[in-house]
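For the sake of transparency, this paper describes our internal protein records without simplification. Because each token names a local backbone shape, the row as a whole describes the fold. One such record is reproduced below, unchanged from the form in which we store it.
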Amino acid sequence: MIIAINTLSLNSTKAGMGNYIYNLVNTLAILDKKNCYYIFVSERNKEFFRITQNNFRIINLGDGVTKGLYRFIWEQFSLPRYLIKHRIDVLHSPGFVIPFFSKAKNVLTIADMTFINYPKVHTLFKRAYFSLFMPISIRNADKVIAISESTRKDAINLVRVSPEKIKVIHLAYGGEFILMDKKKARVFAKTRYGIDSPFIIFAGMIEPRKNLTRLFMAFSEIKKEGIPHKLVIVGKKGWKCKEIFKSVDKLDILEDVIFTGFIPDGDLAVLYNAAEMLAYPCLYEGFGIPILEAMACGCPVMTSNVSSMPEVAGDAALLVSPKDAQQIKISMKRLLTDSKLRQDMIRKGLKRSSQFSWQRCASETLKVYREMA
């Protein structure tokens, strides 16, 4: 087979679906020495794909093609011609939209359906673009990969496609996320990031969908009850984040909340090992990789009881209603103060996280390519 993968939705920071694209391509390079691959990259993400084997060709499209309208024009008009010229059998589009005039078999990956069922959590441009082109892409694709059963059900209900068309292939977490010596991890947290007390961690982009305002409300309440912990927020700024930062000041917890910005996976793994718990009460997630990352590092997890999060966490996390700050507060306090519960969640989390791997994800994706061709 000749397979093409469009990686343009991965930018210079490997977060969210960028993690998926990075790990999928690099794991396929380890697993598949037989088929020929064309990997379309940009100037911003080319460093993630240092693949030297002969059956992989890295096509650098430069920087301009990643920007809004230019990317649309390239994907819809230039890419189809390239597919014909190089006789591509299968095109994999992990960026939610396929080229509509492609002669190759089209495999589409969707992370979630929030552009349709939760439009307010996205910018106006993304809302308009993806709410229009995503449903068309799902209908036109030869096969759709959903990253969770929750996403699959949403797609079936919202787009009205055959259930057999959509296959669930779960994501995983990177090899950096392992158990470490907790004392050394805490020393690292203090020396590198100035975190010199026990802490709760949150990992993800700072945007409305992550529900940080309610997390801050719950955290302010447990601080009033004498809990000594800090709250560490790991992730880059997203859209509509100004109000989120303002809420920290309004709740008078400015001295107890630490924003690290985006950090490398290696550093994040150490912080998970040093943390007392992961608080991840998002309003909606297509998957929720931080849940598995934290579990693999022996960090007990509290997360939401909606969308994909119960599917990913299984019985290895405390589940809460993300719209109930009181529930979030009570569950956080339980995980911080109940040593028996903590140990139970740590044990179950290590077992649960071991069931997910990028090798399994890539192998199941390769099966989809073979079915298409």
In short: The chain has two domains: 2-172+357-372, 182-353. Residues 182-353 form a domain with the Rossmann fold fold (CATH 3.40.50.2000). The longest helix spans residues 68-85. The chain is about 45% helix and 15% strand.
